[in-house]
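User: Here's a chain of 408 residues. Predict its fold as tokens.
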Amino acid sequence: MDIYLVGGAVRDRLLGLAVKDRDYLVVGATPAQMLALDYRQVGKDFPVFLHPTTQDEYALARIERKVGVGYSGFECDASAHVTLEQDLLRRDLTINAIAEDCHGQLHDPYHGLDDIQSKTLRHVSAAFTEDPLRVLRVARFAARFAPQGFSIASSTLALMSEIAASGELNSLSAERVAVEIEKALQTQAPQIFFEVLHRCGALKVLIPELDALFGVPQPPQHHPEIDTGLHSLLVLEQAALLTQDPALRFAALVHDLGKALTPAQQWPKHHGHDKLGLTPVKQLCERLRLPNQYKELALMATEYHQLLHTVMQLRPETLLKIFDKNDMWRKPERLEALIVIGMADSQGRHGFESAPYPQGQYLRDCYQAASAIEVQKILAQGYKGAEIKTKLTELRQASIAKLKNPRP
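Assistant: Prediction complete.
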């Protein structure tokens, strides 16, 4: 048997990136031979084995034939006669179809090295269209490798558009789509993922609530980029500079979904889009079965992002309602999350990328002033039952009011 290091480990090393996982390809072996060498089989659809010492994955070379719908509708042949070239041919991108043998020699039958040099994401063969999941994977690779200057080959983007138009994306499970979205949100340039999906028509199928924002205008004096879909991507781009939290990045991305529901005759204004956006955000999160944290942050971002920009004009009681309703006394991290969303929304506009956002610090100051009120002192004054909350609210409002109207 011959063993090769394949996939991401080879690609990332060639790109000068840290190698995290090592996957190996075994050519010319049978499952019985692997088991005899104390490898442990874990794959059900095709033979994958864990090394007895390192626990690295070793997969037998295989070829696949499309027999059904979706990314799992394949018949697999992993017999010992399958060659290295046949196995690499089934892979998604040329940069992922490079193998390294035990002597350090690279095997590159589909010119992945050339595409690494030209920074191109290119499909290996026409079989690319047989797996709809590859649309999401390539979009994610585009986001991951954007900082290195990679872009998608026009021929590959055309095949992605073909898949999107075929209806095959509907065969993907919500969980599988959510996994790709979460991974993409953790890249340096997550906005590229959604931009690519929009360009190839996949976003309209997978996240129609977001796709509906493209072509919806906003007031040019406030939004020089005009297009709401573009604004959403710019907000995500800014959010990625402010936080590593994928749930918070997602919340920033979907905060304006309500603008797609504004009647066209009201364009470019969008009065009440914050409340209108709550339903599509909830539906999106539940359809994709995203974790509760995603839904909670996304709903908070949608409902309050408008208020954030005018926070210095808000009454103390309004500020307290924001703190109360979002349980910020027990979860102060939500305050910072809301500030990140407000800042990303403000700076996610052409020409405003470096604009200051004093609203954030003012909101922190108000929260700290209100938090400084000690309940124990209220109890010591003899207040009981509902009186305690009433007095606490009164003192917190007064504390915030001093910030708004400081004594000379």
